[in-house]
Input
Amino acid sequence: MVPIASSDAYLPEERAARICSLTTSLPFSHLCFPDTVLGGADIGRRVAVSLGQRPCTGVWKLENHQLICRGAAGKTDITRPLSQVIIALEQCADQIDESRHECKRLQAEVTTSVATRIEDLGKAKVDPNDIDLTEANFILSGGNGIADWAHFHDAARLLGATEGASRVAVDDGFMPRERQVGATGKWVTARVYIAVGISGAIQHMQGIGQCQKVIAINTDDSCNMVKRADLSVIADSDEVLTALIAALNTDTSDSAATSDVSDALL
Ligand SMILES: Cc1cc2nc3c(=O)[nH]c(=O)nc-3n(C[C@H](O)[C@H](O)[C@H](O)COP(=O)(O)OP(=O)(O)OC[C@H]3O[C@@H](n4cnc5c(N)ncnc54)[C@H](O)[C@@H]3O)c2cc1C
Output
């Protein structure tokens, strides 16, 4: 797999040029990139163009010296001849087994000047609630088990989380309709979904099926949300939110605390 990260800056042209310069000094049979937005999909395509190669993208399987790629927005498989530049999906990764692999750090100099048309202006501060729920990575969602909604909003702000809600919370007027998660609301794909005072009705669970990690805060240790959760806190929602706010407030700077917490959770 091609090493990509050396700095946080977004410099796809320079990174692609570095990889291309390595290919002139190191013989290689295949260059593999992860097919993720920031992980290598873009750089892999740039490298392929520079090398005059047609890349195989959305690869999920190698079979009989052919690559099986996802096509038509994942609805169909396309079989392609083995290419030198492979941009692979996560499913392509080997199961953990006994085989040993080596990972080497390589230094690459860019000898020719790189025409950069992209300027990285750094990360922009975004209000988590401006992110559409369906795209949010980190969601704090509230349900009927919340008594103090002001606390809920404070906790979401300090955590840097996007707010979600159960239908009951929406129907009762505590949250706007566009915040509803579930079968008749939004289907979310967060990496971390914290459900506060949400029982886990089937219609709600349908909306969080694609979430990676679920944390439940609930007084009922037998509710469906606790059964589904990777981590549960069996306690009163207001007590937990109050403790969370106090812990986050001990940091003098909101933004520092916010990024620390969301980075740690994600
Ligand atoms: C056709 C249809 C479509 C639906 N679509 C959706 C949908 O899209 N999304 C959706 O969410 N629902 C949907 N529903 C509603 C769904 O069936 C549930 O009624 C709803 O999800 C329940 O919301 P809740 O978990 O917030 O409330 P409740 O079921 O009342 O659960 C409240 C939870 O809070 C806990 N609790 C209570 N007090 C505390 C406390 N002090 N501290 C901590 N925890 C506490 C309780 O133990 C309980 O688990 C739909 C229903 C129908 C019929």
DSSP finds eight helices and ten strands in the chain. The longest helix spans residues 37-51. The CA atoms of residues 193 and 214 lie 5 Å apart. The domain at 128-265 is CATH 3.40.50.1220 (Rossmann fold).
